[in-house]
Write a structure and sequence with these properties.
Length: 209
């Protein structure tokens, strides 16, 4: 059992580095889009294309499910993991999810951007959120939580976590409260936070031996 756990940890390290690199790439790309007028126009058009898929039934489902990336989602996912007996993972998810939310809110005060329904007349499907449009806190939290869950999981579960992260990110554009670059930056921040959390945890474990 110990040998198997050791092999899993070794296999997780390249994945962890890849997650951190992907996060940095996404944040850089999103800021580059935000700094370019052409990128901003493309951002608006991409969001409009996604919102053209709106229908009455899907609107209600997406508007409800988008909160998976909220602090309520953090509490719910952590509680579900704890009830299944994964207490350590539940703690990690709760802490990294909360830390990511706080970091995203601080970032919003540095990058002040109007939301789509404020700047471009987009119809909003949910109550108005607070703070700047960039970055998406929901996308960041979802990416951080799902990355921590996926770190030592099976390939099937990793695919599921990627799908859930993508859904939350797309849902924020769909309901009219973010541009695509906002959620790309949010996912990037979430990946960086998850990678940093895993690195810090490994350092602490090694130091305690």
């Amino acid at each position: 059992m110990a040998a198997r756990r050791r092999l899993a940890q070794i296999g997780a390290r390249p994945l962890q580095r890849s997650i951190g690199l992907a996060g940095a790439t996404l944040v850089t790309a999103s800021l580059a889009l935000l700094a370019s007028r052409r990128g901003q126009r493309a951002d608006v058009r991409a969001g409009d294309l996604l919102r053209r898929t709106r229908t009455g039934p899907s609107d209600r489902v997406v508007a409800a499910a988008t909160d998976l990336g909220s602090l309520y989602g953090v509490i719910g996912v952590s509680a579900a993991l704890a009830l299944r007996g994964h207490r350590r993972l539940a703690t990690d998810v709760g802490l990294v999810g909360s830390a990511t939310w706080v970091f995203a809110q601080i970032t919003k005060t540095r990058v002040k951007r109007a939301r789509p329904y404020e700047a471009d007349g987009v119809i909003r499907l949910i109550r108005p959120p607070t703070g700047s449009s960039y970055p998406s806190g929901h996308a960041a939290v979802a990416a951080a939580m799902m990355s921590v869950i996926a770190a030592d999981s099976t390939l099937t579960l990793r695919v599921v976590t990627v799908g859930l992260t993508a859904f939350v990110a797309a849902s924020r554009v769909y309901v009219g409260v973010h541009y695509p670059s906002d959620v790309v930056g949010g996912v990037g921040i979430g990946l960086l936070m998850a990678s940093g959390w895993r690195t810090a945890g490994r350092i602490v474990r090694v130091g305690s031996r």
